[in-house]
Amino acid sequence: MSDRQLFKLVHSTARQMAVRAVTLAPEGMVVEIKPKTRSLEQNAKLHALFGDIARQARWHGRLLTAAQWKTLFISAHSTATGEGSDVVAGLEGEFVNIRESSAGMSVRRMNSLLEYVTAWCAENEIATMGEECAQ
Question: Does the N terminus or the C terminus of the chain have fewer Cβ atoms within 10 A?
Answer without folding.
Answer: N
